[in-house]
Amino acid sequence: MKYQQGSIGRGFLARTEHGEDPLEEIKALAREERIRVAVFFVLGALQRGSAVTGPREIALPPVPHWFQFDDGREVVGLGTILFDGDEPILHLHTALGREEKAVVCCLREAAEVFITLEVVILELCGINALRELDPLSGQRVIRLSS
Q1: Is residue 78 within 8 Å of 93, Cβ to Cβ?
Q2: Among 27, 68, 85, 128, which residue carries the largest CB count within 10 Å?
Q3: pTM metric for this prediction
Q4: What is the largest CA-CA distance in the chain?
Q5: Average pLDDT over residues 98-119
Q6: Residues whose CB falls within 8 Å of the CB of residue 135, separated by 6 or more in sequence, listed in order
Q7: Where do the domains of the chain lie, and which CATH numbers do they carry?
Q8: C-alpha angle 140/90/122, rounded to 5°?
Q9: Which of 85, 92, 111, 116 is nearest to 39 (CA)?
């Protein structure tokens, strides 16, 4: 395991609006506020979205199993923000629920807020990290540098 120690810097509380793409809104906030490394939480509801529920089989590089929904789901999630060059890259795992059923997934690509989605961002200071493409997995993974 590789790690760095840092401290919590600025905190942000945001509210996304009905119909917005929360992934794009969080990226825009990260760009505007120059949030280079952070952890964030989401709480609210989504009308629709695309997510990955794991690999189709245990193999490298993984072939994702995609899951789309458009039936309105409650959502709670935890993610990270790191940059790849000038682009903020989000990694967001969520639990999506409707009626008595829930799915845990990695929310990716487009999503659309239903009513509102609350976002809490905690900036991590003193950590020198970014996301870069890992040739073995084909995924953008955290790289800690000195």
Answers
A1: yes
A2: 27
A3: 0.95
A4: 47
A5: 96
A6: none
A7: 7-128 (3.30.1330.80)
A8: 125
A9: 92
